[in-house]
Amino acid sequence: MGGWLLLQTPSRVFEWLVPWLIAFATALFALSGPLTQLIRRRRAITHSDGVPAHPRWGEILAYQFLVSVYGGYFGAGIGIMMLAGLALVGFAAIHRMIALRNVYAIWINGVAAAYFILRGTVDWPDALVLTAGQISGSWLSAIVARSLPPGAVRGIVIAVGVMMAASFFLRGR
């Protein structure tokens, strides 16, 4: 659905939306800690090892569907969106959240890629470079993330999101 929306959106509208989409995802992730604490107090969610004792899978799947539409439309920031959603339903173990995010991203990007391939809209040389970057970046970031404390990983995710949004806002001037 997101891929279809992307192909229907005029370029100027998409270019205008990019920094706002990244900023929204980053803000959601940055606020997910306090929001999760509030939700935990209201729902009395207990955790064992940073994973909700009783995850609300219906909420997780509904949110992931929305992220999937967003991801098919605009891939940048879906990792931050997924981490924010997992945090909002009670996940606290950032390393486990990143593992789930990677699995979800494979599916989201795979479905979007299949749609774009079937539509004949893929620029293959660019796609190969982007795919190599995605694979190597995911592998390297997992290694680096495991060596850092969770707070540092969260800070890096937020800093990268802010820098991406700022870069796109400045580029649009």
Question: What keywords describe this structure?
Answer:
single chain, 7 helices, 173 residues, 2 strands, mainly alpha
Q: Tell me the domain tally.
A: 1
Can you list the strand order of the major beta sheet? 1-2
Report the span from N to C terminus.
30 Å
- Let me know the number of strands: 2
Helix content: over 70%
Cα-atom radius of gyration: 17 Å
Per DSSP, the total helix count is 7
Pick out the low-confidence regions. none
Largest sheet: 2 strands, antiparallel
What overall form do the CA principal axes indicate?
globular
Structural class based on helices, strands and sheet pairing: mainly alpha
SSE succession: HHEEHHHHH
Write a structural description.
This protein has 173 residues and is mainly alpha-helical. It contains 7 helices and 2 strands; from the N terminus they run ααββααααα. The chain has a two-stranded antiparallel ribbon with strand order 1-2. 25% of the residues are buried.
In short:
This protein has 173 residues and is mostly helical.
List the helices and strands and how they pair.
Blueprint: H1 2-8, H2 11-43, E1 47-48, E2 51-52, H3 57-73, H4 78-88, H5 94-119, H6 124-146, H7 150-171
Antiparallel strand pairs: 1-2
Helix pairs in contact: 1-3, 2-4, 2-7, 3-4, 3-5, 4-5, 5-6
